[in-house]
Design a protein that fits this description.
There is one protein chain. Helices cover 87% and strands 0% of the residues. It is an all-alpha fold. The two termini are 19 Å apart. It is built from three helices and no strands. Helix 1 packs antiparallel against helix 2.
């Protein structure tokens, strides 16, 4: 099943988001290097930013998977209604 325009746009957005997350991580490291702080504060800041990014990405990916699941369910239900019994048995084996 080919990807729709919406799916391609979502995957391109994910690629752009990876670049923004990388740039933000570099900026955070530069700030932490230029303004020295304790090791515990630095680790907490980095982990907090990383966890926020991972949570957001996970939420987007779960939304994408849900959309794909709905579309696949719709296609399978349409096939079940329109195909003859012999072809259904052959297709859904």
């Amino acid at each position: 099943m080919p990807l729709s325009h919406h799916d391609r746009r979502f995957l391109q957005t994910i690629d752009r988001m990876k670049m923004w997350l990388l740039l933000m991580a570099v900026a955070v490291f530069l700030v932490l290097i230029l303004a020295p702080s304790g090791e515990i504060q630095m680790a907490t800041c980095v982990l907090g930013i990383a966890l926020c990014g991972v949570f957001w990405l996970t939420q987007r990916l779960l939304s994408f998977i849900s959309t794909l699941d709905l579309e696949l369910t719709r296609v399978v239900n349409t096939l079940k209604r329109t195909l003859p019994k012999e072809q259904q048995e052959e297709l859904f084996r």
